[in-house]
Amino acid sequence: MICDPAPPHYWLNVILTNGSTNAIGISDSFVVLPHSQHIYYNLTDAASEKVAKVIKQLADDFRQEIVNAPRPLVYIVGSVDDGGTLSGIARVFYGDATKWKKIYEANRQTIKNPDKITGGMKLTIPKLQ
Asked: Which domains does the chain have, with CATH numbers?
C-alpha cells in the first residue's frame, strides 16, 4: 500500500450482481477499492498493463465524445493538477495541444495570463475555422 499519490485518473461505478454499487478508482499504477478512499493499492506489472489498456480505452472514448461535441461549448476547468492547462484542454477538445491560443483568444476576459488558469474557470471552447 502507498499513501496519497495523485488522485485516480478515473472512477468506475461497478454494479454487482446483488445490486450494490461500488466506485473503484484507477490510475496507471494503483487502484482505490470501495470503502478505502484514502488507501491506494499498488498494481503488479501484469495488472498494470491491463489497467493501462482500460485507461487508454476510456480516454479514447471520452476524447472521441468531447472532440465530436458541437461548438462552441462551455468547459469548466477541473483542478489544474489534473492537467488543466490550455494546451491540455486543446489536446482534449481539438486533438492538438498547439491550438491552445484559439481557446485563449476566445476567453481573454476570463484568462488574464495563459500560464495561469485555475480550477473552476468557465471557458468557451470555440469552433475551429
From this structure: 10-65 (no CATH), 70-125 (3.10.350.10)
